[in-house]
Amino acid sequence: MKTVNIQEKILTKNEMKAAEMREKLKNVAVLNFVSSPGSGKTSTLEKVLVMLKDKYKIAVVEGDQQTTHDADRINATGVQAFQVNTGNACHLEAIDIERALNTLGYDLDLLIIENVGNLVCPAEYDLGEDAKVVLLSVTEGDDKPAKYPVMTRAGSAYIINKIDLLPYVDFSVEKCIAYAKGIQPELEFFTTSCRTGEGLDKVADYIERMIKAKKA
Amino acid sequence: MHELGIASSLIEIVLDTANANGAKVVRSVTAKIGRLSAVDGEALKFAFDAIKEEYPLIAESVLIIDSVPVTGKCNKCGATDTYDEMFFACSKCGSYEVELITGEELTVSEIEVD
Fold first, then answer.
1. How many domains does chain A have?
2. Does the model's ipTM exceed the 0.85 cut?
3. What is the domain count for chain B?
4. Do A10 and B109 touch (CB under 8 A)?
5. What is the rounded average pLDDT of the residues A110-137?
6. For labelling alongside A44, which of A77, A93, A198, B58 has CA 20 to 30 A away?
């Protein structure tokens, strides 16, 4: 019997496809929006993308198990969207992005991916994005970053949404940020309300910074 | 549950390596899995055992999981720590500016062959 030393990283088919997508999208800012169902991903995008759509070429890939409701909402704002229905799957995979881009085209400044509402599995699937933007609404509890640490760790930006409801819930923004920073110190934080519009301009600035970074 | 995909990629690497080394049979496969890699060792073993049957070269092999703990170093005070939970605050000075040293591995480290 002999021992053969290998020391090779295990790359899954999805990671290989994601690397291919990253190469094809090297001048496009790609943001993967992730959250629980109902945190306000689509509402945030509806408001923020309107601020950017006249300046940049934008497309959105919408992931849900069923319905085209979210793509319809985005399309209604004048931004082109492509709906992927994952059926029984709980996350998008890199190949879904490739299929969507076969329709949307690669001539873009910004590609937004709105993942299936789920804080577990989407953390493990690289879609070729530059950053994962994690959303959390204040009705969900301020310890959520600690309960779903793999997603928190994978994030680049963290949006605390529905802050207009803060007076009615026991949610500490400070505590939430401390939990998240203990898991991913490099996170950038935003506090927003899609009802009042508070903080959304900061999210738009962040996205614009990402677009410019990819063009440089 | 992406362990099935990881098991098939792992098996591809093992088969290539075994063939390149003229092995007749693979006895064991050792994989290093960091606690932060989001891979469940038991689920990976289950997936590995389910797929290996299809390949005579590895059908009798055992997958050994080498679990790697999460360790890090504080960039503020220089203290090193091992973390049991995914919360990386320096135990000495409380800073969050911790740089992880181990825990993110997902590699095939070695195989034993005849």
1. 1
2. yes
3. 1
4. no
5. 96
6. A93
